[in-house]
Specification:
about 400 residues; 7-stranded mixed sheet; 5-stranded mixed sheet; globular; 17 helices
Length: about 400
């Protein structure tokens, strides 16, 4: 496939984010298509047996199998890497495939990981259940306190793994402080940046080594497909992550890659408008419920840090009601516009009760440790008129006795 003239990294790196999101990584076939081509193929043909042997030996550039390379998938990977400011990116079938691969590819029996306490339920399952099965010790800390990471370090500590903002408590981690602690000790930092995306926060600018994503969320942004991604140095992606993924197969389909690329074209526009809408809705809710956890509200305990690290607060925040699960479910059941859904990052407004959905598999004691109570609700604000969302919440709050 013939590369479009100008798709050289020395040039594309100079483009501004909005341009990278539209044109980064574009490769055109001999037909000169303007929209990225969708290559639905599992394998590739060779002109001769010698070419096949040379490609498998790494002596000839070219595709061998879509578990390893696909033109559509490679365009997406290059585009995400450019947005992230990373040397390389590897896509995955889902966000959790990305989280699992980025940890297992670099940890082995006898190693130690320090993880943030507030995390997506499946990420806590990785740190609390899966890794220990392989003899990998884990210590969970309050990631809001950089000293907690330092205090947890052991000689065998290899990885710091955390989300910021965290799901669903919206804890914000001091990226520079934690990454500095890790770098001074030769520890790899892996940051789950799914809530913010590179459009609002770029952890590598603060010293992070690796970022991981559920591209299902804001990158697709319309609730259509599953996808994941890992960004890092070329050495990490090619020599640490790729040997794991090429042999275990968490491969992203070309169709899903193409859909996410279409989502990236509007990511900056969507996430900034949704952030504005979310702040309006959060401001309304602050006068109606006991607690609202929105990073860009001045009442958030880490507001100043969030503003320093993020370009906007994102579309997702949490709130708490005093009536526990019964009142939280009553509020959800009274919604007329907002959908009850465990997804996030969608252009539609969605609301869920984490304790009974995304974190239901986490033991109640651990949920309390994470800061997830029975009265917590997580809200994703979409692209609807924010006043319509506020009106829906207003009547639902009243119906729930708030």
């Amino acid at each position: 496939m013939k590369r479009k003239t100008g798709q050289d990294r020395s040039i594309t790196q100079t483009w501004r984010p909005a341009t990278k999101a539209i044109r980064g990584g574009t490769a055109r076939s001999e037909y000169g298509e303007t929209s990225e081509a969708l290559f639905l193929t599992s394998g590739y043909a060779y002109d001769c047996a010698g070419d096949a042997a040379a490609r498998f030996a790494g002596e000839q550039v070219g595709m061998t199998y879509s578990r390893l390379q696909n033109p559509t998938v490679e365009m997406l990977e290059e585009r995400i890497a450019l947005l992230e400011g990373a040397e390389a990116c590897r896509s995955m079938a889902t966000g959790m495939a990305a989280m699992t691969a980025v940890l297992l590819c670099q940890l082995q029996t006898g190693d130690h990981l320090v993880g943030g306490r507030a995390a997506f339920g499946s990420c806590r399952w990785l740190t609390d259940t899966l890794l220990p099965r392989f003899g990998i010790a884990t210590t969970v800390v309050d990631a809001r306190d950089p000293q907690a990471f330092l205090d947890a370090v052991r000689p065998e500590t290899k990885v710091f793994f955390f989300e910021t903002p965290a799901n669903p408590t919206m804890d914000v981690v001091d990226l520079k402080a934690v990454c500095d602690i890790a770098r001074e000790r030769g520890i790899t930092t892996v940051v789950d940046n799914a809530f913010a995306t590179p459009a609002l926060q770029r952890p590598m600018e603060f010293g992070a080594d690796v970022t991981a994503y559920s591209a299902t969320k804001m990158m697709d942004g319309q609730g259509r497909v599953l996808a994941g991604a890992v960004c890092g140095t070329k050495d990490f992606i090619d020599n640490t992550l790729l040997p794991f993924t090429r042999n275990t197969g968490p491969t992203l389909s070309p169709f899903n890659a193409w859909v996410v690329m279409k989502g990236l074209e509007t990511l900056d526009l969507r996430i900034r408008r949704q952030s504005e809408n979310a702040l309006k809705v959060a401001t309304f809710l602050e006068g109606r419920v006991p607690r609202v956890l929105c990073p860009f509200l001045p009442s958030h305990p880490q507001h100043d840090l969030a503003v320093a690290q993020m370009d906007a607060g994102g579309p997702i925040f949490a709130l708490e009601v005093d009536g526990g699960r019964a009142q939280a479910h009553a509020l959800l059941d009274a919604l007329a516009l907002i959908d009850i859904s465990n997804n996030i990052g969608d252009s539609r407004s969605l609301m869920t009760h984490p304790a009974s959905t995304t974190h239901a598999s986490v033991a109640e004691e651990k949920r309390r440790e994470m800061g997830i109570g029975e009265g917590m609700l997580r809200l994703n604000i979409g692209l609807e008129d924010p006043q319509d969302v506020i009106d829906d919440l207003d009547q639902a709050l009243a119906a729930a006795g708030l």
